[in-house]
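Batch manifest line 378
LIGAND: acetyl coenzyme *A
JOB: complex structure
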Amino acid sequence: MTDSPTVEVHRGLAGVVADTTAISKVDPESNSLLYRGYPVQDLAATQPFEAVAHLLWHGELPTPAELAALEAQERALRPMDERTRRVIDDLPLDTHPMDVVRTAVSQLGGLDATLLRDGGVLDPELNRGRAVHLLAQLPGIVAYGQRRRRGLEPVAPRDDLDYARNFLWQTFGEVPDDVVVDAFRTSLVLYAEHSFNASTFTARVVASTLSDVYSAVTAAVGALKGPLHGGANEAVMHAFAEIGSADRAEAWLDEALAAKRKVMGFGHRVYRHGDSRVPAMKAALDALVAHYDRPDLAALYDTLESAFVARKGIYPNLDYPAGPAYHLMGFDTETFTPIFVAARVVGWTAHVAEQQAANSLIRPLSAYTGPARRDVPR
Ligand SMILES: CC(=O)SCCNC(=O)CCNC(=O)[C@H](O)C(C)(C)COP(=O)(O)OP(=O)(O)OC[C@H]1O[C@@H](n2cnc3c(N)ncnc32)[C@H](O)[C@@H]1OP(=O)(O)O
Ligand SMILES: O=C([O-])CC(=O)C(=O)O
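JOB STATUS: finished
ARTIFACT:
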C-alpha cells in the first residue's frame, strides 16, 4: 500500500518562486525581459556582446575604459591550450558537439591551478576571472568542434576582433558581412540570460553546494542540451529538414500533432503570449533571409508558425528564429546549441556569483509515493 501525498506538490517546480535575483526579470504579463533593468531588445539593438556580459556580471553597463579592459582580458584568454585540443581530438567525430563542449568545459576546471588554493573555489575575484576565461575559450571549442567534423584544422583566434566576429572567424576562417555579424551578435545578446531557466537553475544548485564554477557550468551544459531547453534550436532545423518546403508544412504539422509529438521551438514555461526575444531575433532572421536570398526558408518558417498558432494557440520561443538564422550563417545544425552555451555562460556565471554571495543550499522536499514500511525478507 502506498502513502498518497498529503502536501501540495509542484511538479517541475512550475509557478514556484525559488529565490530572488537581481540579474534579469522575465515578465510574461508585459511580455518583457530586462537585463539589470534594461529591455533586452534595446541592448540587442545597441550594445556589443561584451558590454552585455559586463552588465550581467557587474550590474551596470561598462564605461569605455571598463569595456576596453574586459575586451583586452577576454581576447588574451582566447588561445586554446594544447591539452584541450587533445581532449577534443580524443572524442569520436560523431560525438555530439554538446558533449564535446561539456567535456572541454569540465577539463578547463581540471586545468585551473587556482582551484587548488585554499578558499580559491569561492573567491569572487578569481571566479570573475574564471567567467571571462570560460567566455573566451568557448568560441574556440565550439568552432573547432564543427571544423574537425568537416576535416578542418582549428583556426587561431584574432585579438583584433570582437567576440562575435572572432567566433565567426574561428568557425569559418573568414569574417562575414556586417549583416551576418549583427544577426549573430543579436542572438548572443538575446541568449545571454533568462532568470531561473533549467540550465541556470542547475548551475545554481551546483553552486549552492559550494562547488566550483566549472562544475556548475559543466552541469548547466548538460541541462541545456535537452530538446525541451536549448536543444530545441537544433531540433527546429531537423524539423525544417523533415518538412522540406512550405507547401508540406501543414500536413507535417497535422501528422506531428496526431502523433502527439512536441513541435520544437514553440511554447514556453513562463511566457504564455509569446517570447519577448522573438521579434528581435525574427528581424535578424529576416535580414539574413534577404542577404542570402532564401525566401523559401522564410515561407516555411511563416507557414509552420501560422499553422501551429492557429491549431494550438502556442507561440514560438527564441529557438524558433535562432535555428534557421544559424543555418543561414553556415553553422552545422548540431552546432546551434553549443553557440547558445557560449552566450548563456555569462548568465550562468552571473548566477553562480549571486548564489554564492548569499548562499542557501538548494534542497527541496519530495512527497514519497513508494511502498509503505515493510520488513526485509529473511
Ligand atoms: C530557450 C528555451 O529553452 S525555450 C524552450 C525550448 N523548448 C522547446 O521549444 C520545446 C517544445 N516546447 C515544449 O516542450 C514546452 O512548451 C515547454 C517544455 C518549453 C514548456 O512546457 P510546459 O510549461 O511544461 O508545458 P507543457 O509541456 O506541459 O505543455 C502544456 C500543453 O501545451 C502543449 N504544448 C506545449 N508546447 C508544445 C509544443 N511545442 N508542441 C506541441 N504541444 C505543445 C503540451 O502538449 C500540453 O498539452 P496538453 O495540456 O494537452 O497535454
Ligand atoms: O526560461 C526558460 O525556461 C527557457 C528559456 O527561454 C531560456 O533559458 O532562454
